[in-house]
Known about the structure:
Blueprint: H1 14-19, H2 31-46, H3 51-76, H4 86-95, H5 103-119, H6 124-130, H7 133-158
Helix pairs in contact: 2-4, 3-4, 3-7, 4-5, 4-7, 5-7, 6-7
Amino acid sequence: MRKPELAALKLSNPLHLLALGFGTGLSPVMPGTMGTLAAIPLYLLIQGLSPLWYLLILALGFVAGIWICNAATRAIGRHDHGAIVWDEIIGFGITMFAAPAGGWWILVGFVLFRFFDIVKPWPIRWFDRRIHGGFGIMFDDVIAGLFALACLQLLAALL
């Protein structure tokens, strides 16, 4: 059952479709996790690109995400609703930058990103509480992605 505040969001609207992670954000359980799962096929599409192109796509996704998340927030009338998962998609992409190849590393990156996105250790929680709007929605997931990226790269270096 769809939450009443989500009635204003239409999957036929491209901004809403992206904000909802192609519909995964509408999941009644763990929409952020479902949105991160939606990021995996997108990651697989860009993982073989040069680092420059990979980062350019993430940067464009971040900038577009400010607009995308603002549009969804305005439609819902509530800041950073759990159904808005475009930020998870970009955060996971950051986590997986220069990750070793293989399904194991995708799983590790997924778990690390979800950990930092859910637990929000300092300074992630600090940013989450103080920066609002589309930029704020995106920014705390960028920081969570950077934390997860650092842990993933450290683990890869140790193994």
